[in-house]
Structure formats: C-alpha cells, structure tokens
Model the fold of this input.
Amino acid sequence: VVGGAVIALAATGLVGLLSTERAAPASDAPTTSSVAGADGRTYTVTNHLAKGYRPDQGRHEWLLAWAGDARPGSSTATPKLPPPPGKAKAHHKTAAPAPGSTAKSRRPSDPDFVAVIDATKGSPTYGKVVNTATLSPQLRNEPHHMQYVWHKGQRIYAGGLLSDTTYVFDATRLPELRLTGVNVPTDTSCGSAPDAFSVLRDGTAYASYMGGPDVPGPCRYTNGEVRVGNGYAGSPGEVVRIGPDGRTLAQAPAAPAGGEDPARCHNVPALKPASCANPHGIRVREDLNRMITSDLFEPRDYLDQTRPQLDPFLARDTVRIYDISNRNHPKLVSVSHLPTGPRIEPFPAFKEERMVMENSVTNQPEHRGAFASTMAGGAIFYTPDITDPTPQWREVFDDEAAYRTYKAAGPYGGGDAGSWLQVSPDDRYLFHAVAGHDPRDPRHISSEMVYVLDISKLLASGNQPQCRIDQIAEVSRGGAERDCPAVVDVLPIRDVTTGGPHWGAIDNFERGADGYYHETQQVRRLAVTNYIVERFGMDGDHRACMVDFDGGRLSVDTSFRDEVNGAPCIDFDRKVWPHGVTGSAKPHGVLFVVADDDVR
Amino acid sequence: MTTSAENDGRVWRRWVLRAMAVTATVTAIAWQVAGAGGSSPVPPGVPVVRQVEAAGQVSVLVVPNRPGWNLVHVGSDDVLVGATREHLEPARPRPGTSGGWAVVRLPSGRSQVWIQRGVRAAAVAVDTGRDRSPALDPTGADGPECAGAALGRLAAGVAAPVVSCPADELSASDAVAVRGIVRFLGQRDQRAVTLVEDSSPRSRAAARVVRSEAARAGMAVASVEHPRGPLVVVSGWARAQAAIRRLAADRARGADGAYLAPWLLHAPLLGAPVAELVALSYSPGDPSPQEYLAALAGSFPGEPASGSGYAAWLAASGTPEKGPVQPVRLFAASHVTVPGPAAGHQHGDAGWLPQGTITPVTTPLDAADGG
Done:
C-alpha cells in the first residue's frame, strides 16, 4: 500500500522535492533543485551566478526572461542592421561546412534557461545578467510565456510551448530560482502547447493550452465532460488549473459541448463537431468570478503549403468567457466572434478580427470591461462587461492610427503581429506591443512598435460605449467618437528580422521611503522582448529592452545597457552566459519580480 | 519456430559480419593514419560521404560503395549524378525521404561518381573493390532507410561496410513498440485499426505482432483498401508516406490519426495534417538523440534524422544511451505554423522535426511480451 501510494504520488505529478542545495556565498558552485515529473523523469534547475557576482545586502528588483537556446540557422545570423540591397535574404542560407569536414560534429542543443537580470535602476549591476537558471533534461522547450504580472508570494509559471511542459519556480531566493513543480504532457492529456498563465490569489494558476488533445479522439476532462479532438497541436484546446507544485488540479473544456459553426471554425483534419477553441491569451477577474480566453489559431501545419494556410477560418476570431465560481470547474458562458472592421485586405486572414492573440481585463472594482487584440488583424476590441452572458464586442482602435504618428508611408494594414496587451493597474492606460508587418516585406522596412493608449474615457462610458471603428477614416485617425482610446505615445523599436517586440511586462513595483518595494498602480516602466517563435517562421533580434513611461512619453531606457556590447537593451545574441559558452538565445516571456522579503 | 541450426547459422553470420566490420574499420583507420588525403577514395565497401562544390555545396553519399549498383544520395533535388561525366541522370526524390536519389552502376576498383548542378560539375573518388554488397538493394524501397543507417554509423566516426539493413528483421525493441501501440488502442476501446504493411521481413514480422495483439484485444484489422479506424503503420518509409497522405486527404477519417512504428521517426514522414504518433523508447529531445542530430548535421548537412539512423549511430558509437533505458511511449509529432502569408518563411531550425515538435504524450505503454 505504501509503495502504491508513493507511485501514485509520482504518477499524479505530486512533485517531490528530491534535492535542494544552496552553495555557500563564497562559492561559485551552482545550486540545483530537482523535482520528479509524472513521466518518471527528474527535472532540474541549476543556478549559475555570474562570475564574480556576489549578492549584496541591498534590495533588488529583477527582470526575469524565459529564454530558449537559439540554433545555428536561426536568427543568430540575422543582421541587426539593415542589409545592403540584394542581401535581404542572406540569412536564409544555411552555413555550409568547410570542404572535407564530413565527419565534423556540430554542437547539440544547449539548455533553455531563465535569465535573471538586475532591474534595479541605479544599481552598479543594472542590466547585468546575474544568474542563468538552466533546465534539464528537456531541451528545446520553446520557452514561451510566464504569468502576465507577478505579485508577492506567487510562484512563477513558465510554459514550454513545444515541449508541452510547464515549469513552476520559487523566486523567494532571487537572484536564484528553485524548481518546485513540473507539469508534463501526460498531466494535460486534453490539451497541448501551453501558452499563457494567470495566477490566482491562492497561488494556483490558470493556463491556456492552445492545441488539441494529445491523442486524437475523445478526451475526458476533470468534470467528466468529453470532447472529440483531432490530436496534438490541433483542436480543441483547453484551460488547465495548475497548482504551485505543478500538479494538474483541473482540465476544463474551452469548446462548448455541441461544437461550433463548421462554416466559421475550420479544423485540419476536419472535426465533428467543429471547434474554434485554440486559447492563447488568458485573464482572470476573481472578484467577478470570470475568466476570459482569446483564440489564436490551430497550430498544426498541413501538407498543402499554399491553399489552407490562407484559410481565414483557421485564424480564429473568437473570445470565450467562463464562470469560475468553482475554480476547479470553469464553465464556458459565452463564445463571441469579434466583429469585422472596415479595412479592405488582400488576404481575408488579415481582416481586423483575425487571430485574437491577447486579451486584458480591467482591474478596478467599478470596471467590468476587457480588451482583445488581434495578431493578424492589427486591431483592438472592447466589451464593457464580461459578466454579461452575451457580451457585445466592438473594435475601438486600429494599429494604423499608431503607425501614422511616426510613419507617413506605412506599411499599414493587417499582418502586423499585434501581440502583448496590458491594461495598467489603475485602468487608465492600455499598452500594446506590435512585432511588425508581414515578413515578406523588405526587412529594412521596420514596422515594430510599442504604444500606449489612454482608455479612461472609454471605461468612463460604462455600459454605453459609443466608440466603434466602422468607417475607413477611423482606421487611420482613430475613432471619431469622443470616448475612443487616444494615442498617448508610440515608441518605434527597430528590428529588421522576421519578428520584433512581441512580449512585454509592466513594472508593478516602486521603491518606498522605507527601502522596501511596494506594489503600485502607476506604471513607470515596462520591458519588451523581440522574439516570437522561430519555428513558426517568426523570429526577432533577441533583445530585451527597458522602456520608461512618464505618463506622456515612452522612451527606451538607455541606462539599461548590455554588459557585453554596451548598447541599450540586453542582447541575447551573445557568446558567453553565466552557464557557459552556449551562444545565442531567444528571450520570450519577461516578468518583473522582487524577492518576497523585499516587498512590503 | 526457430531451429537450433538456424540459430547457429545466424550466430555464424553475425560473427562473420562483425569480423568484416572490424577489418574494414581497421583498414579505414589505417588508411586515414597513412594520410591518404581528402581526394582519395575510402576503403572498398565503406559508404562514402563527401561535400563537393557544384554551384554551392552539395552533400553526397555513395552506398554501399561496392561494384555494381550503388545508391547515390545528394542533399538537393536539382543535381545530376552519374558514373561518368557524359552520362548523368537527375537525382530524383523518393517517397518518404529528402534530397535526391540515383542508382549508379560502378565498376570494380577505383572510379568516380560525378555530380553536376547547373553547369558546375564535381567528382567524388571511390574504390569499390571487388566484393559485391551482401545487404543493400539500392533499387528497393528500403534503400534510403538503409542509407540513413549507414550515415548514422559514419556520423559516429565508424567506417564500416553495410552488412545488413534495418528492414531485414524486426528487432526485439521494435516488436515491443509495435505491440505497445496495439494494446494502447485496445485500451482506448478502439474496435478496428487499418494495418499498413509491406513485404520486407521486418514489416511482415511486425504485421504478425499487430494481428496477434489485435486478435487478443478483439480488434478488427482492416486493410488500406478497406480502412477502418486509425492507421497502424509498420511498412517502410515509401509505403508509409503514401498511406499517411491518403489518410490526410480523407475528410471522414483524417481525425482518426496514424500510429507509427519506431523506424518511421523521420521528418519527411511527419507533419502531415493528421495526428501522428510514434512509439519510441527514447525522447528525441534527450542528450543522446541530440548528439546524433548534431553529428549527422556535421556529416551530411540538411539530412533529416531518422530512428534507424539513430539506432545505427548509437550502436556504432559504442556508448549506451545516457541515463536509464526508458520504456516505450507514444510521441506526438506535429508541425506548427501560423496561418496566412507569413507562414512558410521559416529558418533552418535543425531538429528532429524542423518547424515542429515531437512530444511524449503517454505514460509507458503496456508492451510486455505475452501480456
């Protein structure tokens, strides 16, 4: 019985801490922590403090960047400056081996890691990568997102998009991290491709799993319901509640029992019933008992490289709202198709409503609204009340209006990879990162930016918003109605690769007169990373930039400099890391975090 | 039933083959130590892999490097290949593979294999010796897989002749994996499966395992002509690709998915618009498979890794898999991309499945013999 219990604990992912070692402060020996996964493997994180770095007695704020190893042939060879004419595609050539080098081995993949960067303005080590916490044994996770915002006491949830694995870290000993849980593919049999996380007050997290069940056919969720899926990275995706120990607490369907409109929701291979459920963004209003997810696309590829990829009905236009009164039983309340906008696009997949990558909820008790943004559509949508069982969504902003503030000649229109979306804690501002236009454009045409909108009038309109982008003139000038979001500032961030600023995080801390950090509702700075997903064909120049915001202007913090090349922004295309000479890396999720003891 | 005489014969044959391999390896090492130079041919019977300059770098593999018909594999499908510069033929794609393939008749002893792309030609020096290959039929459907295994050995730094091919027999570990697939489907209450097989000894043996386990589970086994339920694929690469493509084109059955034997872990077979699951006793993301991948990229840049190539690399490198032997699990193999015109603009992310992922999605399969 005892043996069975031990096996059961391991099999259900009740993670047992196998070892935790902490080196003496004077030692350079890396510290490790390990947990057993439900797959029987031991997962380990190893901290590698930068050579010569010794934690001081001062309190620090840290920027965590969840980064993957960049392989030869990726954008490691991508020029960071505009290529000369005729050379724009030079980075597509695979490096050829030297003649006669037939038996020469190439280096296998290096580990993925969390980079811990000193984000304490004024600190002598500001911008320095003081620790890299490497993961083993799983390589090539495709590190993706962590939670949107970190609060004191929370664990850190970090997803491996293509390893179907979620890691949970304890950050109380920053700059070192401790692995406290791992959620492996078999823990989430009804979904694949973990994308984003929202952490609840009790320390558990909801995660969006964008892809379909691991195995094609019927899959039974925790609540006993069954949906039929077309397999890994297909449809329908799901929502998973994960504990701070990495254990799956609940798998919940994102697809309604009766399926969805097969004319608007295509699946490859075809599903009966059809489903648009491929949740990417995931946000929670615990006070309203509501969760919202936004659907991106069915991530699996297909043989025909020309026709189906242009199928706009694989690029989702849906937003889902759930009742989470029972936290382990999220109940789907509504599935909304976003309205189409006034733009005329050459590709239907680039219409305003296509590929709803992200959403962001308001925060203040008097507000119940939420925003959603589209990756292919390049637009922002709003609904004033997510407790409404039939929410009314409206387009309230087109990215073109932001581009017009600094780019008179374009390019404009869809396909600009609108990405990270974040309402400020005080509900006054909406931040948005845009990774840039169609990669087929000449790469010297840079169209990457971060912008901030003032949304106070829109939210003040309560349940009677007037703003609606339904005229072509409003695409370029912003909405004509008085309550439409107003552009506060636009910050171009040049990236001549196939990607650009995709992800970001707001800094929700400020240092008080007592020397401790405190949470704040006023956003003074944010961080963005230039990387999407190389294996999707959308890369980036692998930089992490700090952006100051004074309430009126966004500006790159030029004091947040790369310790190797001396330039503003941290360049992950470097040779040497604290864990070794492993070369370029791809930073995706970023998060501002402070050690628990340093937050009041 | 296997007789003791047959066993004795196999033991003797294995001993002879092993002795041949050792002799060839020693010869190859001696040849290398003697400083034969990059342009001189490698010892007879040892597959030849080279990079040549012909309007850009072209990777070339000549296997088995014996008198008579040889299989020439090039890393591109726009290359002409021949035994003389005057008689060149296009290296053509083969189902379930990448690059180009040509069958070239080589004389005994020293000669050249010619490669031409555009107007640029180059020659690879070979020495086929006098003995014909006992193993490889370069014209057969399983030739490319056999060549992949040869590449695996070369990537391990072992210059050994081709004395057998993966499709010659069903290994014990592969039998376990195939059995595990069928039991898994039985446990999911699958009532029928469609068996994809061919005439190789390995496939015939694997098909017997499938039928036996299916009968035990009360599952019907349908043919590809009258399919029912998911595919269970135990054929070679060529037939597997045709069957998977047929399934992908079938709107009524596409969502059933395809379950593949371990030797079908090969990128050109994966990434079809159906759920594909491969039974493996290792994770391609683990250190050993990654080392093979890196070694293969050094030997023949751009060549997709394969389960058979990895098995050959592992055996040739003489090092056991790092870590404990793992049980058989199902791994989901899937491409991932963004819909729309942006897709397809992808970089050379070299992995087991470029632009995709191979992920373990089951607990260990119940695959014990006779269970």
